[in-house]
Amino acid sequence: MVLVLAGLMVAPPCGARAAAAGSSDCAFHSVNGRWQGSCGRLFDATPVMTLAPEKAIATGAWRKGMTPTAVWAGDMTDDGNRNWPIELEIYPGATGVLRTEYGWFPVSDFSAAASTLRFQLDASHEVPPSGLDRQIVQRAAELLASDAVWNRADNRRCPASATTWSIYCAVERATIDVTGAANHRRPAMEVVRVAVEKRAAGRNYHHRLMDYNNDPSTRIDDVRSLFAEVLAQDVWVQ
To answer: Domains of the chain: which residue ranges?
Structure first.
């Protein structure tokens, strides 16, 4: 199955399961100060989620000038794998975003009572990239300005002290620079993945950004044109 990202048809992340079509009813109940529940069938599984209130989102602001009215963080079971972290942010109008290992997805009709928390989750459409995501891609392009700062041997580990960057690490570093923290499924990273997916059709990469970066046929001009191509797209929302 494919996801829809700002009007683009997007293959699911490498190793990720396909999202179920349509909106899911998510229901949680309070258990010892935490909220436990499910959104039903998602990502070819029926994951159980656990959430607890937090003061702020830990993985970087979503959109410029927007502060959530409520935040929860926790994890989501994933059959056969370790639990994955999740964050839920809610904004005025009972809308928000659920950040997951499989992407960021829009939330609507949020409500919370003494013992029940509910919302609708659209797991078939990832949240489109915002103006803040565009700033991230611009910053990544600035970081990878020449061969001298390009790491041709990416392992998706991005130390804070690094002075060279792969494509993946440049976007991660840029995300921290722009938003204060990173999340490897935020829309900025996803829209770059989509562009690589188109370029690498038929190459059967396992990790798209790492494998494209490390491909002997990839040159710094390809990296620079990749970011330019992404920035030129009409996918950004404010």
So the answer is: 3-126, 131-232
